[in-house]
Design a protein that fits this description.
By secondary structure, this protein is α/β, with parallel strands linked by helices. The chain is built from 11 helices and 21 strands. The strands form 5 sheets. Strands 8, 9, 10, 11, 14, 15, 16 and 17 form an 8-stranded mixed sheet that branches. Strands 1, 2, 3, 4, 5, 6 and 21 form a 7-stranded mixed sheet that branches. It has a two-stranded antiparallel sheet with strand order 7-18. The longest helix is centred in the middle third of the chain and has 18 residues. It is globular and about 60 Å long.
C-alpha cells in the first residue's frame, strides 16, 4: 500500500546517475524531503553500464565541479567521480536502489510511484533518467550472420578487434569512437557505413586537450550574437575539414547551435582516413560472413566482415512512466516540446525533467544539470508555476542562465548575476580550470 498523502515526500527523483544525484544534492541542501529511485542495484546511471573504454566528449576540467577530483576521462574515472557525490553530500539515506519505477499516477494532489518493492507518494517528481537510456540499433535483415554484432553501449573487449575485418555503422560520436578503437587495436580492415554525418572539429590533438564548448561559452557570454557565432563556427569547421583533406565526410548542412552539437575531432581516424573503406549508405543485410549496403546513389555494396559495431546512438525512453503524453517519445526535441523552460511538464503539475532536454546541445553535462537542478529546487520550494510556451531548440551555456534568471530570483540576483558569472567564467578560463563552479 502507498503512503498516506500526509506522509508524502517533497520530491521523488527517478534515476541515480549524475543528474539524479545532483538533484538530490540540491534538494537536501534546501531542506526538501527526497528519495532517489533507480532500477539498478548501484548508482551511476548510464556510466555504471558503459564499457571501460568509453569517455566524455570534453575536457576533464569541464566535467568535475565543486572540487570533487577526477582522475581521468574514461568510464571508470567518470563513474568514480559521480559516486563521490554520495558521501560528499551525505546522500546515502536518500537512495532507493533496486527500485525500478514501473508507473506514476497523479491524483490531483500528489504523485504515486509504483515499484516492485512497494508504492511511494510524493508531491513532485523529477525524472532524471537522461536522454541516452535506450541504445538505438537500425533494422538490419540478419539471415544467419556468422560474425558478431555489438552496440557501442555494450562492446566490452576492443582487444578482440585485432586482425579482424570490422564494419562500423553510424556517423556521429559513437561511430567516430569505434573507428578509432578499431584503428588502435589494429583491425585488419575497416569498412565504415554511414547514412548521415554530424559535425566534428578535425584536429591532430586528442579530443580532451581542447574544449570548443568552452570557447563557445565564453564568446556567447561576452555577447557575440548567435548568427555571428554560427558564421564563425561554420568557417572554422569547413577550413579544418579542408586542411585535413576529409571534405568527403563534411556534413551537407550548415552548423547551427540551435539545432546541432559539435563533436571533438578524432586524430587517429583523421590520420588513417584513407585506409577506411567508406560507404555512404545504409546497412541492409547480414548473411554468412557478408554485409550488404544500400548506397545513397542507388547502388549496392557487399563485403566480408567479422564484426559489426553499431555507433548509432541512443533514444530517449520514458515509457516506464506510463503517462500517455510521454509514451513513445524518443528524442530530446520531442520532450522539450512538452516542457516549459526545458524542465517543467506542460501536462502535469509537479512533474519535472532534468537533463534530458539539455543533452542534445553543446555544453558540459554537470554544469548544465546543476543550473537546472537549482531552479527546479526553487520551484518546488516556492510552489511557483512556470508559464510560457515550450522552447524546442537547443539552449546552451549562457542562454541557459538567461532562461532561468527571470523566474529564479533566489539564485539570480537582479543586476548582479551577469557580472558575477562573467567574472567567474573569465577567471576559470584564465586559470585553465573548471568552467564555472556552482
Amino acid at each position: 500500500m502507498p503512503q498516506a498523502s500526509s506522509d508524502a515526500i517533497d520530491v521523488a527523483i527517478i534515476g541515480a546517475g549524475i543528474t539524479g544525484l545532483t538533484m538530490a544534492r540540491y534538494a537536501k541542501a534546501s531542506g526538501l524531503s527526497a528519495l532517489v529511485f533507480d532500477k539498478a542495484d548501484t548508482a551511476g546511471g548510464l556510466w555504471a553500464q558503459l564499457p571501460s573504454w568509453q569517455d566524455i566528449q570534453f575536457r576533464a576540467e569541464d566535467w568535475s565541479l565543486n572540487g570533487i577530483p577526477i582522475r581521468g576521462v574514461t568510464q571508470p574515472h567518470i563513474l568514480e567521480n559521480i559516486n563521490a557525490l554520495i558521501p560528499r553530500y551525505e546522500l546515502e539515506d536518500m537512495l532507493r536502489l533496486g527500485h525500478a519505477v514501473t508507473g506514476v499516477r497523479w491524483d490531483g494532489e500528489t504523485w504515486t510511484l509504483t515499484t516492485p518493492r512497494g508504492s511511494f507518494v510524493a508531491r513532485n517528481i523529477v525524472v532524471a533518467t537522461g536522454l541516452h537510456n535506450k541504445p538505438r540499433t537500425p533494422e538490419v535483415a540478419d539471415s544467419g550472420f556468422e560474425g558478431e554484432t555489438h552496440h557501442s553501449f555494450s562492446f566490452q573487449h576492443p582487444e578482440t578487434l585485432r586482425g579482424q575485418n570490422i564494419t562500423v555503422v553510424g556517423g556521429s560520436a559513437s561511430a567516430y569512437d569505434l573507428l578509432e578503437l578499431a584503428l588502435e587495436h589494429q583491425a585488419a580492415r575497416i569498412d565504415w557505413v554511414y547514412r548521415g554525418l554530424h559535425w566534428m572539429v578535425p584536429s591532430s590533438r586528442q579530443k580532451h586537450e581542447k574544449s570548443v564548448h568552452r570557447s563557445y561559452a565564453l564568446s556567447q557570454m561576452w555577447g557575440l550574437e548567435l548568427h555571428k557565432l554560427n558564421a564563425a563556427t561554420n568557417k572554422m569547421l569547413k577550413d579544418k575539414y579542408t586542411y585535413f583533406s576529409i571534405e568527403e565526410i563534411m556534413p551537407s548542412y550548415d552548423f547551427d547551435y540551435r539545432y546541432h552539437s559539435i563533436i571533438p575531432g578524432r586524430p587517429i581516424m583523421i590520420e588513417h582516413f584513407q585506409s577506411l573503406r567508406r560507404y555512404h549508405g545504409t546497412l541492409r543485410a547480414l548473411y554468412g560472413n557478408q554485409a550488404t549496403v544500400a548506397l545513397i546513389d542507388g547502388g549496392k555494396a557487399r563485403f566480408d566482415t567479422d564484426v559489426v559495431l553499431y555507433g548509432t546512438g541512443y533514444d530517449l525512453d520514458l515509457d516506464f512512466l506510463q503517462l500517455p503524453e510521454y509514451t513513445g517519445m524518443r528524442t530530446g526535441r520531442e520532450l522539450r516540446a512538452r516542457c516549459r523552460r526545458m524542465i517543467a511538464s506542460v501536462d502535469y503539475p509537479g512533474l519535472y525533467f532534468l537533463g534530458a532536454p539539455l543533452l542534445d546541445g553543446n555544453g558540459t553535462t554537470p554544469w548544465g544539470v546543476s543550473i537546472m537542478a537549482r531552479t527546479i529546487t526553487m520551484l518546488i520550494q516556492s510552489g511557483t508555476t512556470l508559464s510560457g510556451q515550450p522552447i524546442v531548440d537547443n539552449v546552451n551555456h549562457w542562454d541557459l542562465l538567461e532562461l532561468f534568471a527571470p523566474v529564479d530570483r533566489v539564485h539570480y540576483k537582479p543586476l548582479l548575476w551577469k557580472p558575477q558569472y562573467l567574472a567567474t567564467a573569465f577567471w576559470y578560463w584564465w586559470r585553465n580550470d573548471q568552467l564555472i563552479n556552482i
